[in-house]
Amino acid sequence: MFEFDKDKFRSRFEDVVTTLYRIRPEDATDEQKYYALSAVVQHYITRKWLETHERFQEEDSRKLYYLSMEFLEGRALGNNLINICQDKRVREFLDEMGISLNTLEDQERDPALGNGGLGRLAACFLDSLATLSYPAYGCGIRYKYGLFRQKIVDGFQVELPDNWLKNGYPFEIRRTEYTCEVKFGGYVETNWDGERNHFVLKNYDSVQAVPYDIPIVGYGNDFVNTLRVWDAEPYESLDLDEFQKGNYNGAREKVNFVNSITDVLYPNDSNRFGKELRLRQQYFFVSASVQTAIKKYMQHHDDIRGIRDKIVFHMNDTHPVLAIPELMRILLDEYGLDWAEAWSLTTSCCAFTNHTIMSEALEKWPRDIMEEMLPRIWQIISEIDRRSKVAIKERYGEDQGKMYGMAVIWDDSVRMANLAITGSYSVNGVAAIHTEILKKEVFRDFYEMTPEKFSNKTNGVTQRRFLLSANPLLAEWITDRIGSGWITDLTQLAGLKHLADDENALKELAAIKKKNKERLAEYIYKNNGILVNTDSIFDVQVKRLHEYKRQLMNILHIMHLYNRLKDEPNLDIVPHTFIFGAKAAPAYSRAKLTIKLINAVADVVNNDAAIAEKLKIVFIEDYCVSNAELIFPAAEISEQISAASKEASGTSNMKFMMNGALTLGTMDGANVEIVEEVGRENAFIFGMSAEEVISHEKAMDYSPGDIIRQDPSIRRMLLQLVNGFYSGDKPELFRDIYQSLVPVNDQDGADRFFILKDFSDYIRAHEEADRRYRNASDWNRASLLNIAGSGRFSSDRTIEDYVRDIWHLKKLNTRQ
Ligand code: 26Q
After folding, report:
1. What domains are there in the chain, each with its CATH number?
2. pLDDT band for position 816 (50/70/90)?
3. Residue 660 vs residues 149, 466, 638, 678: alpha-carbon distances, Å
4. Ligand 1 pocket, 636 CB below 6 A?
5. Hey, is 342 helix, strand or coil?
6. 33 is catalytic
7. Beta-carbon count within 10 A of 253 CB
8. Alpha-carbon distance 573 to 562, whole Å?
């Protein structure tokens, strides 16, 4: 096992500081030291990276290309040090030099090239693939601006640009030698050569795709995979003709247009509006990735038909689904295969994961946009559509229902999910219940026609980041008890179960939780100026803001609790700190208003001296991977309260569990499997089942009218949304939220997410949690059982499931 040598490390580190900044090491700023340390780490990693790829070559490995518009990596320095098993040593060396590793790590800008769950899942998958020694590339976009930084100003969300590349990113390598061309626009010329048609794109606009490679370091195995992110660059940085005519703006026009492709990540985590630029982004990175994969393959093989054994393209939701027609284009137009052969190869190489059941979130692109931007791709999609319609008709005759369910093109729009399923050999959901809903509802017709394509792959998260690195105290405690095997085999945590009745062990566990709560309390004090009571229960909901996730139900419950406390000042409740973290899509006004409501309630409650000891509400600004790493270890209640059937899986639920929080949630997504592992008695489950929700949706028979009429405390709480109780001189501020809950008449389709329907049971679940918390040893026991039961939710397990059933990769032989 490699180890940094103390003297060499020190002299290298100091050398790099001086070389990079022309400065004496003792005069360097923390940021300069961060860059220098990163360079030292990168130096070591790059050697291993090169070796890993030489071995791919030697073994002619089958490779996975994980295509994703998002990779929410989080900080790299600390993670890389942990994965090369040098964090303790380097921490010591730096300590001796009077430098704090934590301070240097805090200099790193969080690369936020993702919105939420889907992007973070991609990052966890890369970590696990590398740790398990599977040859894989992540393929994505190098957005110049990642997900916006969130500021809270007067309780409202304000978005600031995330210029993460401003001072350079120390772990990327620009690979100009792999630059390739991506073509947009133009028209297709068809030439008959006496035997077959040739399709040639004419008069197109060219964009250069330049890759940047980021190393993905496996844990303790000297194995390094690649995350390849593409930047769009113009061929000419200036249009000289226009320039010479004196048209200086015109001279830059094309350049600006090209640059705009990789400018910014769309801050949307559902398909609320399909903007043209977003389609351009999709084709841009998919075309570059697929072209490069094929080119690389052909460098070492002579028959294109061999790709079926050597390449798998995995599509992370529908965003990269143009990989299907792009691969077809390459096989047909560049390799001259006939349709049948090209289609057979394509459908042997492409696999697809769906991450949502909400039909309004399924991507569709209008024909005119597609046809104008990607004329050849449009032709190919039309042909895929035509042939699939023929096949559907052959099987089902004139059944229009089947046609509607499975058509790729409908109403002059391309339905990306249907294209994905038609062109893939594998389709999976991300939690058992989600996959069942896909099979029974959303993709019922496809499932009936090709059941063998469908499978479930329950999500997982990497314990290296979310336990080992985020919660060093707990990690060490676990290792002391059961050894360090859990770091690469999380099921070993089950070995903690026998401690459930060991009072000593439970006390130690509680002491660790307390320390982690103090660490978070410091962060909160620094960032929010709020002093929280670390003896109160930390009840946390952190995730994107979405109506279906029901942050509104959470804050309504707090409003309700506050009313009770005002009525009965001596009410004996467990002191609570309610913690929220959430970004709202900038155009999603109801979501943004919910953030304002949370902050408005916080303002009133936190400033009410009479209940200061009992209730605090904290909204953590700019929820992101790095503050998540402080939040999970400190949490005691994990709020997973989506309307059942709506959350495909959820992954924060797993991160909380692993850190000893108890789930308070609905039977939705992976919560169902969490409850399977820990038992219903070690979670607080409430609310309607997915079947009930779906049946109310179908029958359209739910109206909250009766609930409102019958419960004065609910009426009071709702009224406070529109009487200025929380909005002073702007009583109408929260009208839209009120309206979303209270129908104008009973037929009105209000409260789409059944908040009031589940409300009383939600209150009950909270009461049960409070009762439980009063008995510390009982609580700690449940907490321990959650940790011990989280083994199934490692992304290592998820990856092994994908490898076994879908990807069929082989572990690279490790040389040691
Ligand atoms: C699509 C088109 C246009 C603009 C934006 C989008 C878009 C972007 C991101 C649509 C969806 C997303 C992200 C979805 C997402 O994060 N889904 C979550 O995936 C997790 C990993 O599987 C699950 O755990 C969550 O349940 C699911 O909500």
Report:
1. 1-59+86-109 (no CATH), 60-74+110-459+801-807 (3.40.50.2000), 480-686+754-787 (3.40.50.2000)
2. very low
3. 29, 12, 10, 11
4. no
5. helix
6. no
7. 12
8. 11
Task: Give tens-digit pLDDT for 229-255.
Answer: 999 999 987 677 777 888 877 777 888
- In tens, the pLDDT along 51-73 reads 999 999 999 999 999 999 999 99
The residue type of 319 is H
Judge whether 68 and 122 are in contact, CB under 8 Å. yes
> How far is 537 from 541, CA to CA, in rounded Å?
13
* Contact residues for 176 (Cβ-Cβ < 8 A; gap 6+): 210
Q: What is the pLDDT of residue 750?
A: 74
Measured in angstroms, how far is the CA atom of residue 99 from the centroid of ligand 1?
A: 40
37 Cβ below 6 A of ligand 1:
no
Positive or negative torsion for Cα 464, 466, 467, 470: positive
Of the candidates 225, 229, 202, 201, which has an alpha carbon nearest to the alpha carbon of residue 215?
225
Helix (H) or strand (E) run with residue 679 in it: none
Nearest alpha carbon, ligand 1 atom 13 = 269
How many other β-carbons are positioned within 10 Å of the β-carbon of residue 62? 18
Share of the chain above pLDDT 70, in %: 98
Nearest CA to 813 among 226, 1, 55, 60? 55
- With a 6 A CB cut-off, is 579 part of the ligand 1 pocket? no
- Residue 625 corresponds to which amino acid? V
Which residues fall within 8 angstroms of residue 90, CB to CB, at 6 or more apart? Answer: 4, 9, 37, 81, 101
List, for residues 406-442, the tens digit of each pLDDT value. Answer: 999 999 999 999 999 999 999 999 999 999 999 999 9
Which residue owns the Cα nearest ligand 1 atom 1? 271
